[in-house]
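Consider the following assembly input.
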Amino acid sequence: MKKHTNKLTIYLVILALLIVSVGLVPKIRLNTRSYIYDHTSNMSASFSHFGTSIREKLSFFARIGRLKTENERLADLLNQFQVDSSRISELENENTLLKQELGFFQQDQQEALVPAKIIQREAVSFLDNFVIDKGLADGLVINMAVVSHGVLVGQISEVYEHAAKVTIVTSKDSIVQAMLQDSRAKGILKGGLSGLFLENIVSDAEFKDGENIITSGLGGEMKQGILIGKANKLKSSGTGIFKTISVEPLVDLTKLEIVFIEK
Amino acid sequence: MNTFKKIMLIVVALVTVLLDVSFFSSIEIYGATIILSLSILLTMAISDRSRDYLIYAFSLILFFTIFSSLPLIVIAIEFLLLPAGLNYVMIKYFPKPRPVTSPIYYIFGTLFFELVLLVYSKEFTESGLLTLSYFVVINSIVGVICYIIQEKVKNDFKIEDIRI
């Protein structure tokens, strides 16, 4: 019995030393994470894909009753988008012509997008971050914007050799400089379990229901104009100087499998 | 406990943590996810009198320190203090764990687990409490399933019988 206790103690001491080294020494933690992500990314990607496909199947059965109404709503939306798309094409042409007339340089708008697969997520869902299979080797650096279908999903918060951690916009740790597209009123986008909120908007700024929220580019971490979501409703006027607006995300952040990093 | 069992516990800890961060984290139910490693740990803590569950608990702390962004102190409270407390209660007050009493442990264990997380993340809101209730229900069910499986396996198979 005593021998057993001694052996158990030795194992526990070894494990405790490993925990302390990994948990308290940042360099060891970084190298260990990098090593583990490199060696488990394939397995994690398979598990993650399997999990997402199961979730998709389950949610299909839950949604089956709403499919008809959803289909009609999407058909209307598609018509609206076609009209918008045609208007935008016209405006683009007009813009190009005007730029040429004024002698502006035509900048290459095609940003380099790096596709990445989500291989792991935080076990505790509301901490909202995930790990992707691209890292330093692919030219990624901290604070790069991560998008899906052109909508901002999050920001790179940690980078390893072949992996990177992304903090999702809905995370309580996420802070993004954002603004209302039409009124140009700037604020700070913050996440949390209660939802997504645009805070510190000057109280006299007007906003329309459904108005686009885009990145403001302040701070220089992210380029201006990346779509984030739609303004939903006024949450509070706070002290009277600033107000807070709730934001409706445009992509289902829990269903993501592949994302793009804007380099 | 032979060396093989100890190594097995460390390997099982790695596999369950990988399952938690890549498989179960993709299946979110009303903001709550299944944490299989927690259910297995609680099952071991309420049925293990030899304190072998500590190997599994320490391994979980090590792997969650690597895979999670939670601070070490929170991980240690969740995966060491909580099971150690339940193990103490089990030894002191329930001489023989029964399937009927096991749900009480799981409900208390998962409630404490999520409450610590809510306090840490300062998310004591209406949505936070809703997530808490889903988390407790889902993970308590998974815990009871783990307990039933463990009871079945214990009767038919003993890991000590394996010799390498």
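The first strand of chain A starts at residue 113 and ends at 121. Ask yourself how this observation constrains the way the partners meet.
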